[in-house]
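User: I'm putting together notes for a lab meeting next week and I want to include a structural view of one of the chains we've been expressing. I don't have a solved structure, so I'd like a prediction I can at least talk through. The sequence is below, exactly as it appears in our construct file.
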Amino acid sequence: MDTRSEEVILNGAQTDGPVWQLHRKVTGPPLNERRSPFVWDESIRQAEEVGNVWAQRGSSGTYDTQGNSMTLTFHVLANTGFGTDLEFKSVEQNPTSMYTVTWSKATNTVRENLLLVFATPKWILSLPYLPARWTNAGLAMKELRRYMEERVEGEQRHLIQGLPGSGNLLSSLVRGSEQAKKSPVSATQPSLLEPGGLSKADILGDMFAFSLAGHETIGNVLTFAIYLLAAHPEVQTWV
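Assistant: Thanks for the context. Below is the predicted structure for the 239-residue chain, given as structure tokens.
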């Protein structure tokens, strides 16, 4: 394994042939219209939470529209994709005693420092007396991996205990991979796969890719939509 932080970004988008087919097989089932009602309901809930927090601030409102939009869209993804319920107000609170930063903050910090994180060996980012940006980026990447590993291990425990899957992306990754392991292994299957299935690193890589790519685009669209609505009150009324 490379000493750099990109060890968790190997995913289906970087593969082809039978490897890509397996990634697509286990990630495809939850990405359909049957999940749309859950995504819509969670989007409304998160939007209401953001609106309530902004309203409580009174005339001061918010000066971080983009950051709040990114948090909102990530929370929707965390719930509908990874089965983790996050509250918007928790962003302004301290994380649990097990972590240094919240899951959404770790994700957004990594997103803002992608080049730095993936071009710098981990041991450098852990050195003392580095610029704050470097230290925060290294810590965010470390915490992000821990958050994802915790979710994967939890889903694996549910599978071992015989509990039904939720049908979300994480459930499909873990359970679909376990089912694939029981099928015959192709002689052409690359060694990066566990026999017939995805390795833990593969699952983490897919989670990482969906975490960033799955919410950044929508977060940016939402940010500009808010700006445009604020600039055109007549459109707000129409909406």
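A couple of points you could mention at the meeting. The two ends are 51 Å apart (CA to CA). The chain has ten helices and no strands.

User: Perfect, that's what I needed.
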